[in-house]
Design a protein that fits this description.
Elements (H helix, E strand, L loop, with lengths): L1 E6 L5 E3 L1 E3 L22 E3 L18 E4 L3 H7 L4 E4 L13 E3 L6 H7 L8 E3 L6 H6 L6 E4 L2 E2 L8 E2 L11 E3 L3 H10 L5 E2 L2 H24 L5 H7 L1 H19 L7 H11 L14 H5 L7 H12 L9
Parallel strand pairs: 1-6, 5-6, 5-7, 7-8, 8-9, 12-13
Antiparallel strand pairs: 1-2, 3-4, 9-12, 10-11
Helix pairs in contact: 5-6, 5-7, 5-10
Length: 317
């Protein structure tokens, strides 16, 4: 049995877990690699714990999870945690990682309400480019996670970022709470690579490139999913990925590891049915757009085409 407290709006949940970590919807669109990566589901159990117990000997270190949506609820299934709503108070005398499993637009409020003594425990799981934002908040050295993990609906099985190209998985974490987060995912049968800050930076920009490229190409070309975008416009996808990585290497003075294009294509195969739309511009494509037309002409042209076609709910100006 496992235990995770939900506070204050949720009841204590006791349940056993059987989480299948590989999933592919039956109506998934065609892709280059049609065989999903399957792993045996594992029944995971934990000993009972009292509501206030954060036993250090537990297989999964205690965590506070802010957010009870699809990702937060999935992480809570590993047990030994306290789940808070985004407006709930964080215990200033608590300990362990504080996993922020909310959308980016909730970050300001969560950080503001977090006691100063606990801010170093905040772990950011959000998609997009966070570095400039975290730097302004004085939190650039906090733990971060590149979550290659998709949960399509509340209670649904998680789609792990395990691909034919990267069987070790693509999810990565860095910082003081990286190991604790990896152990939580491991308890759920999901994979996570613990890496240092130097390795994390190109990995972060690579994931930013994935969500920016496949969403943009899909939207600009009228594709319903990222899988369709990758299949029907593979040449444009590759050209755009190469454009963005070259621009980032120049601006950030970093080097991407070999295999960015096949690595991102392989991940697209795993989540091929994900809808293609340009969203959360300030956190995603804006970083690239601001590099300028000279550095990223294809990217910025496609964005303007989307704007002219009424496909954006924001202005590029």
């Amino acid at each position: 049995m496992i235990l995770c407290r939900y506070y204050p709006s949720f009841i204590i949940a006791l349940s056993s877990i059987a989480l299948t970590t590989a999933w592919m919807p039956s109506d998934v669109c065609p892709s280059r690699c049609l065989s999903a990566y399957h792993r045996d589901s594992t029944m995971l159990t934990k000993r009972d714990m009292s509501a206030g117990d954060s036993d250090e000997t537990s297989e999964v270190p205690f965590a506070t999870i802010v957010g009870n949506g699809r990702i937060g609820s999935t992480l809570a299934k590993a047990g030994n945690c306290l789940v808070l709503g985004r407006n709930d108070n964080i215990d200033e005398n608590g300990k362990g990682p504080i996993l922020i499993a909310t959308r980016n637009d909730a970050l300001d409020g969560i950080i503001e309400k977090c006691p100063d003594s606990r801010k170093s425990d905040l772990v950011f799981l959000q998609n997009g480019y966070l570095n400039a934002y975290l730097d302004k908040k004085g939190l650039l050295d906090n733990s971060q996670v590149l979550l290659y993990l998709s949960v399509t609906a509340m209670g649904a099985e998680a789609v792990d970022g395990v691909t034919a190209y990267n069987p070790e998985g693509l999810t990565a974490a860095t910082g003081i709470h990286a190991e604790a987060f990896a152990r939580r995912l491991s308890n759920l049968g999901l994979r996570c690579n613990v890496i240092d800050a130097e390795s994390f930076k190109p990995a972060m920009f690579e994931k930013l490139s994935w969500i920016s490229v496949f969403m943009l190409v899909g939207a600009a070309k009228g594709c319903k999913s990222v899988g369709q975008a990758g299949l029907e416009h593979s040449g444009l996808v590759e050209e755009l990925i190469n454009e963005l990585t070259a621009a980032v290497e120049k601006k950030e003075a970093i080097k991407f590891p070999e295999g960015t294009v096949p690595r991102l294509n392989a991940y697209t195969d795993v989540v091929a049915n994900f809808p293609a739309a340009v969203k959360e511009f300030a956190w995603r494509n804006k970083y690239f757009f601001d590099l300028g037309d000279e550095e990223v002409p294809i990217h910025n042209t496609l964005l303007r085409e989307c704007q002219d076609g009424g496909l954006l709910d924001f202005s590029l100006e």
